[in-house]
């Protein structure tokens, strides 16, 4: 996720771009840059760091006045977040300049072809291929050249492009990543999101997927990827600036919950082949080494630990390797036995959680190999790992992890299947089936989000409930744990996540009328046993809510059933957690709480 802004018109361009980028900083903030064009000259100014660093740099470099410009705030997906990889990117001759949001899945093939044709690359980004491709199309009008580039590029992307020889033109393109045009009087704006131009205009033009738009001071031209002219559709923005930054959602948490289908699509992008194999070329680790591994340790904290629980089930089931999981702050103190044949997987969305860093350092000191799973490119965990798998969820502002959790689940499922593939522990046909099912997850999560209204109505009845239990077995157990954590941290009510079969060994004494028990029943091989455990709760007076797959006849046990799309065991964790995120959200908002900034918590915990 990154932020794009563009402006063409009579105002001082830099004074539009920099505030615009500041309003888009929620989309990414590891590096930023601008490109400005006037009468055959182009200035590109960019830096690692936040928009404030870019503002300071622009102040020092004092760019020439311009008539058009594009800017970018980056959330790295390809290449470390440094100045060289910051956008904008240019071709060898500095004639074309591009900013980009999204992932160009076939960038490696495109880059190889361009390099063979003599182009020299300066960055590690996927974006730079676009600048070089456009340079080869210099005889075409820019809009036509961008159309051709879009037709050769795979994946979700949004672009804004300028060319020195067409100084009063910005061309944008969109497929899967957002892009809107702000329509002014003798000026126009292009941006990833409305807040970037809302202080200048409330008139906007929606750009649909697979469209290319040419923006000049007095005109907006729209074409499709076949080159057909289209009529731009105008809209008026009704939101204020603050609401617009949250995409119209009342909170960042709700926005991030709803971003999950897109985020999961990004996690999967380019990581599976057409033949149903897992392709993790980015995992810079010798396959022979992975074949020699005889034990896996997974360490993490909080929500990431719940992803670790799912990873244990997945890796053990698919590779038959023994897997130990640890809450990171406990790992070192039990003197775990590791050596050169051990694989440690450290999971941390921030990549900066000190307990997790201390745990993986301990593992490395024992000679173990380390794979990091992180959402933040070049985080401390990423830097210290032998290989890293990024979750690509984009920045998460709400303190409660939501999209970073579901993307962790997906990344770890990919990693589990990759290990199975490399080690030959699973039939390739079975891997292919699971890979194809994973590709359905974005759509299935979208369907699971449809239960929001129903869950809100349900939770309205629970204003006085003080005790919740979340129960599950096998793959449903980590989901239950995560549901309980979400409710505790944002609604401040007691919620226990428990293995359903363990309740009878003590906690069942707490079950009485007025307690809500949420059972997760998506893992087929424990379904019957979980339902029996839920009967035990019901017999003691608890209100029973079940999260169950579409078509599964579980109704008799439950006071209410929330449905999620049916899917294979373990993959279902991704959809099953969505109703529980919504449940926590609605209980917390009904209590009038600030879900984005719950009390006593910090997004990243850098103390032991
Ligand atoms: C989850 O909602 C919390 N914010 C918290 O448990 C979090 O998952 C934990 O602190 C670990 O953070 P990390 O993934 O950045 O390491």
Helix-residue proportion? 25-40%
Uncertain spans: none
The CATH architecture of the largest domain comes to 4-Layer Sandwich
Describe the main β-sheet briefly.
Answer: 8 strands, antiparallel
Q: What fold name goes in the CATH topology slot of the largest domain?
A: Glutamine Phosphoribosylpyrophosphate, subunit 1, domain 1
Please provide the count of β strands.
25
What is the assigned CATH homologous superfamily of the largest domain?
A: Aminohydrolase, N-terminal nucleophile (Ntn) domain
Strand content: 15-25%
How many separate structural domains?
3
Q: What structural category characterises the helix and strand content?
A: alpha/beta
Q: Over the alpha carbons, how many angstroms does the gyration radius reach?
A: 25 Å
**Contiguous helical run count:** 20
Bound molecules: 2-deoxy-2-amino glucitol-6-phosphate
Distance between the termini: 30 Å
> What's the CATH class label of the largest domain?
Alpha Beta
Strand order of the largest sheet: 3-2-4-1-10-9-11-15
Write down the overall geometry: globular
Q: For the residues shown, what is the average pLDDT?
A: 94
């Amino acid at each position: 996720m990154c932020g794009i802004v563009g402006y063409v018109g009579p105002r001082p361009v830099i004074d539009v771009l920099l505030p615009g980028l500041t309003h888009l900083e929620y989309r990414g903030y590891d590096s930023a840059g601008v490109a400005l064009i006037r009468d055959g000259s182009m200035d590109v100014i960019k830096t690692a760091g936040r928009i404030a660093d870019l503002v300071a740099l622009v102040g020092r470099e004092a760019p020439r006045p311009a008539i058009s410009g594009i800017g970018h705030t980056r959330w790295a997906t390809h290449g470390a977040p440094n100045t060289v990889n910051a956008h904008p990117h240019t071709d060898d001759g500095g004639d074309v300049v591009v900013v980009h949001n999204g992932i160009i899945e076939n960038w490696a093939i495109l880059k190889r072809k361009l390099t063979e044709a003599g182009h020299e690359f300066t960055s590690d980004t996927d974006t730079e291929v676009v600048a070089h491709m456009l340079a080869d199309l210099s005889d075409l009008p820019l809009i036509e050249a961008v159309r051709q580039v879009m037709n050769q590029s795979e994946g979700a992307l949004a672009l804004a492009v300028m060319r020195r020889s067409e100084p009063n033109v910005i061309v944008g393109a969109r497929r899967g990543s957002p892009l809107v045009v702000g329509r002014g009087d003798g000026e126009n704006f292009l941006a990833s999101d409305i807040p970037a131009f809302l202080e200048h205009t409330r008139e906007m033009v929606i750009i649909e997927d697979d469209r290319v738009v040419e923006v000049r001071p007095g005109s907006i031209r729209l074409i499709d990827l076949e080159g057909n002219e289209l009529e731009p559709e105008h809209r008026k923005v009704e939101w204020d600036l603050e609401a617009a930054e949250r995409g119209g959602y009342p909170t960042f948490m709700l926005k991030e919950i709803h971003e999950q289908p897109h985020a999961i699509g990004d996690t999967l992008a380019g990581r599976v082949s057409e033949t149903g194999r897992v392709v993790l070329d980015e995992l810079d680790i010798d396959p022979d080494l992975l074949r020699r591994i005889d034990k896996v340790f997974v360490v993490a904290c909080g929500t990431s630990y719940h992803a670790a629980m799912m990873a244990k089930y997945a890796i053990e089931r698919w590779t038959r390797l023994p897997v130990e999981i640890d809450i990171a702050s406990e790992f070192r103190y039990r003197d775990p036995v590791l050596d050169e044949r051990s694989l440690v997987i450290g999971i941390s969305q921030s990549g900066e959680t000190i307990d997790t860093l201390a745990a993986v350092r301990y593992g490395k000191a024992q000679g173990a190999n380390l794979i990091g799973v992180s959402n933040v490119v070049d985080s401390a965990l990423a830097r210290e790992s032998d290989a890293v798998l990024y979750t690509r969820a984009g920045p998460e502002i709400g303190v409660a992890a939501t999209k970073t959790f579901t993307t962790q689940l997906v990344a770890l499922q990919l990693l589990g299947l990759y290990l199975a593939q490399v080690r030959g522990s699973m039939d390739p046909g079975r891997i292919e089936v699971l890979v194809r099912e994973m590709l359905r997850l974005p759509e299935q999560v979208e369907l699971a989000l449809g239960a929001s209204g129903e869950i809100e109505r349900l939770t309205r009845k629970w204003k006085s409930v003080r005790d919740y239990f979340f129960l599950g077995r096998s793959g449903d157990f980590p989901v239950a744990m995560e549901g309980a954590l979400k409710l505790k941290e944002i609604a401040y009510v007691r919620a226990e996540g428990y293995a359903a079969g363990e309740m009878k060994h003590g906690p069942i004494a707490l079950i009485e009328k007025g307690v809500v028990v949420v059972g997760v029943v998506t893992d087929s091989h424990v379904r019957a046993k979980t339902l029996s455990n839920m009967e035990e709760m019901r017999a003691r007076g608890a209100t029973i809510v079940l999260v169950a797959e579409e078509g599964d006849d579980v109704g008799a046990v439950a006071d209410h059933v929330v449905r999620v799309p049916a899917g294979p065991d373990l993959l279902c964790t991704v959809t099953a957690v969505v109703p529980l995120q919504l449940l926590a959200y609605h209980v917390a908002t009904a209590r009038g709480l600030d879900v984005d900034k719950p009390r006593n918590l910090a997004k990243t915990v850098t103390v032991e």
